[in-house]
Amino acid sequence: MSTPHEAASPTDEPLANLLFDHTGADIILRSQDSFHFRVPRIYIVNSSPILGRVIRRTSRSLGDANAIPVVKPVVHLPESGEILHCLLTFIFPVTPRVPSTPEEIMELLSVAQKYQMGTAVTHIRGSIARQNSLPARLKPTLHMYALAQKYGLRPEALQTARAILLKQSMTIEDFDNELDIMPGASLYELLKYHERVRAILASDLTKFRMSSARGTITGFRCTELSPSQIPCWLDHYICSIEKAPNRFDLVEFNAAMARHIADRAATASEDLHCDCASIPSQTRSIREFWEALGSVIDGSFEKAEPFLSLVHEYEDPQAEINLAIQTTSPPDIFDVPDANIIIRSSDFVDFRVHKSVLTMASPFFKDLLSLPQPSDSESVDGLPVVELSEDSELLKGLVSMLYPVCTVIPNSYEKVLYLLAACQKYDMVSVQSSIRAEVKRGEFPAPEGAEAFPAYAIAGGKGLVPEMETAARQTLDHPMTFEILGEGLRLFEGWALRDLVNFRKRCRDNFIMCLDSFLEVQPPGPSNIWVGCPNPKVIFSTTHPRQIHFLPIWLNQLLAQNRNDLKYQKFTHPLDIHSRIRQEYFTALQNHATCNFCLGVHIRSGLKFCAELEDKLAQVRDKETVGLLTEAGI
Ligand SMILES: [Zn+2]
Ligand SMILES: [Zn+2]
Question: Which of 304, 326, 348 is the last residue of a domain?
Fold first, then answer.
C-alpha cells in the first residue's frame, strides 16, 4: 500500500484542475494526477489521524504552524483526483459522490480505510448499500469478491463470498470460465471459507431436521418418513444443502418436491399414503418452512464469518515504516579471496564475489557494473554493495554455480525453479542450462506426483516455459480438483489456472477424437480388421450413414466407455488412457474368449492394433502444449 508522499511545495498560483474549493481553506491537497483541492485542514485532521500527521509534518516544514501562513501548504497524496474528490464529499457537508465502477468504489473504501477515516468508511458503505445492491449474476459477484480481497475490505469480502456460495457449487468444473477473475490466493480463501460454512451448516441443519424443521412441516403423511417424522425427500433435500449451499434455492426445492410427487404417482397403490401432492397448495406452511430454513442458514453463515481470511489484511502504514528501517548486519557466510564486490541478499547476507565472474556469467551484471556508481552508494570494507531481491539460500546456490566449488544442491524442485528464475532474470544463460542438465541427470530434484501443480504455477509465473510445459503435461497424470491443488492453489495466477484447465480440456478433446477414429469401422480405419465378429454391436458409420457396420461388442464397449468417461471425468480422474488401454484391451478380449473370429484377429494382428491405439493416444496427448504466456508478459 502506498503511503502519502509529502512535499512542501507552497503555492498561491492559480491552480489548474481545481476540483474542490472550500471556504476557509488553508491547505491544498494534490492528487497523483495533478488535481487540486482547496480545503480547511481542520476537517481533514479531524477525520483522519493519518492525514493529520502528514499535514502537520508538511506545515512544520514550511515554518511555524501557528503563524498565519502566507502561502498554503500543498500536501501530495498518491490517490487519483477522482478518488480523492469522492472521499472529500464524505467529509464535507456536501452531496456524497460515489464512483461509478465497482473497482473505484472498492478503491475508495480501501483509501478511506487506509487513512483510518472510520466515519467516512461507514458513510461510504451506507451510500453503496442504498445505491446498488449486490449484482445478481455470478461473474460480477466473483469480480467484486476479488476486489474486496485485493483491497482488504472484510465486510464486502464476506458479503460477496456468501453470495457466491449460495449461487454455485465449488468445483473446478463449475468455475470453468471464471477462473481468471481472481488470483489463486483469493480463490483458496473462498474454498477454505466454503469448507467452514459447510461444516457449520452440517451441524445446524441436522438440528433443524431433528426438530421437524422447527415444527413447520408436521402432520404430512408420506410413504417414507424420516426419524423426525418429516417426509424423507424433504429430509434429503435439507441434507443436500450441507454439501452444496447453493441448493438453498426455491427452484431446487420445487424440483425435489416435483420429483417425489411424480415418483409416487407412478407407483400409486392403495396401501401407500402420501399427502405430499397437497403441499404445493399449502403456501403458508411452505413459507414458514422456507423462512425457518433461511434463518438457520443465515445463522450458519454468521458463525462462519470469522473464518474468512483476507489475502491482504489491512496493514497499518506505521508498521510498514517500522519494517523499512529495521536493518541487521549480516553474517558473512560466503567469502572468496580478492573479492571486489558484495552482493547482498534480501535477508541481508553479504556474498563477496568478483566483478569479472559476475560480468562473464551475466550480461545483466555486465551492464549494471559498467554504470558509474552513485557517490552515496553503500560500501563495506571498501567493496561496493549490490542489493538483490533473492534470499540468501538462493544466492548461495547461484554463487556456488559460478565458482569451482561444490554445487549447493537445492532440496526441492520448487527451489530449483526459483534458481532457474533468478538465472532468467539476470540473463545467466549458461548457468540456467547447467541447472536444467542437472535436473535431467537426476542430480537436482525433479517434480514428483502432484507437485507438478505448484511447479506449473511457479514456472508459469516466472516465465520458465520448458518447465511449465513439462509440469503441465505431468499434471494430466493426476486428477485436477481443488482438493488436489490444496494450498498450492495460492501460487496460481488466475490466468495460469485458466490456461491449465483449457490445456486439460484440449488433451481430453484430442483423446476423444482419437477414440472416434478407432470407433470408425470403415477402411482405412484401423478397426476395420474387426468387422465380421458374429456377436457385433450395430453402429452407423459416420462417413457412410446409409450402411450398417459392425464392431465386436467388447471392443465397442471398451472404446465407447472410455470416450464417455473422458467427457465427465476430465477433472476428477487422471487423463492417462494411453497407459491403461493395453491392459483394458486384454481384459475385454478375455471376456470374449469364446469367439473364434476375434481370437483369430487378435492372433494375426491384435498386438499391432493395440500398439497403434496406444501410440496414437500418447501422440495426441504429447502434441498439445499450454501455449503462449500472453498475460505473463512473455
Ligand atoms: Zn410423500
Ligand atoms: Zn467376436
Answer: 326
